[in-house]
Amino acid sequence: MRRLFFILSFSFLTAAFIIIAPVSVLAVTVGPAKMEYRVDPGAVVENTIILINDSGAKQTLWPAFEKFTEVNGEKKFRPAEPTELANWIKLPESVTLEPAEQKRIPFTIEIPQKAPPGGHFAVIWWGTAPPQGPGQVSIVTRAGILVYLQVSGQVNESAEVLRFSAEGKRFFWGKMPESFVVSFRNSGNTYQKPQGEILIKNIFKGKIVDFGVNDVNVIFLPDTEANLRIAKKFNKPPFAFGLYKAELVLRWGEKPESIKKSIWFFVFPWKQALGGIIALAILFFGLKKGIRKYNQWIIKKARESGI
C-alpha cells in the first residue's frame, strides 16, 4: 500500500513539474517591418536592421530571401522563384544572440550598373535553421523584413482607378454615407503608394467633410489591384439633406501622377423627417383639441352668466 502511494505521489509531482515548469519558446523580432529605396544603377545602399531574441534561450539566426507578390491585396511568397535582390543584398551568413539580446546588423545593397529599371521586391527571412537551398529555409521560427527597391530609368508608373463609389452603389441615402470604395490598379513596372482624399461638397461647393485615402500607406506591386482603405473623419454623420458631390483626388508616383473622379448622391433623412411629421401631427391635433375645449369652456361660461 505504501509502495502504491509512493508511486502515485511521484507521478503526480512529476506531472505537476512538467505542467508548471516554464518552456523556452524560440521567438525573434526583426525591424523595421519594411524598407523602401529609390536608387540609380550602380548605387550602394548601406543601412542596419535590428534583431531581437525574445526567447529565454541562445539562438542562432540565418537569413534567407524570397520573392513576393500580391494577390487581392494579400502578400504571396514564392520561394521557388529567384529574386535579383538576393544577389544584391549582403548580410552575415548567421547571427547568434544571447537570451533577450538585441543587435544592430549592418547590411549593404549593391545595385549593378545594368540593373533593370523598375521595381524589385524581396523578403529577408531570419530563421532558426539554416537555408536548405536557394530561396528555401527550414523554419522553426522566422520573421521577415519586406524590401521595396526601385531602380531609376525607363520606369512605367501607369495606374488607374477601376472603381469609385459609395458603399452599396446607391444614389439615395437616408444619411451621409460613411463608406466609399476606391479600387486601384497598378499596371506599371514599379511599386506605387497611392494617397489622396475624398471631399464631399454641397451644391454650393461648400466642403462638408473629407476622408483620407490609404492613410496606412499600403503599397501596390506591379500588376496588382485592390481596394484602398478609406479613413473616416467623423464618429457620427452630420445632418444632411439634398444633393451632394463626392470628389476623389488620388496621387501616386514620382512625378506625381494624379487622377480625379466624382459621383453624385442625394440625402433624404427620412427618419428625422418622419419624426418631425409625427411631432407636427401631434402638435396640430393637440392644438386643435385644445382650441375646441377652450371654445367649449367660453360657451359654458357665457351660458352660466346668462349672456
From TrEMBL:
The chain crosses the membrane at residues 263-287. It comes from the Bacteria. Keywords: Membrane, Transmembrane, Transmembrane helix. This is DUF916 domain-containing protein. It comes from Candidatus Jorgensenbacteria bacterium RIFCSPLOWO2_12_FULL_42_11.
